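Exercise: predict the fold of this chain.
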Amino acid sequence: NSQLDVNATFRKIWRVRNDGGEVWPNGFGIVFLSQAGGYHFGVKDFVPLNCVVKPKQMVDITLKMRAPSVPGDFMGYWQLCTAKGVRFGQKLWIKASVRQ
């Protein structure tokens, strides 16, 4: 659970591993799961990651985020997806307590 000031900018990093048998090709990205509810922290709905990840390889996914403009507890959910919009892997999330 991150403690943030109102409107603070920060970077969220998720370290993920390609546990599958196929390469994640250039053009895959991370998508905000709006249907899961939650707050987007100022991130676009789809962010391309511009890298290739081979099977068993680890990669750090870093998003520049902004805390909400009001205090409270917030969560947001994202998931990896192909350039064609096919989601894969586990949901990635952030939980933050925002204070005045």
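Check your answer against the key: Strands lie at 2-5, 9-17, 29-32, 46-48, 58-66, 72-81, 87-99.
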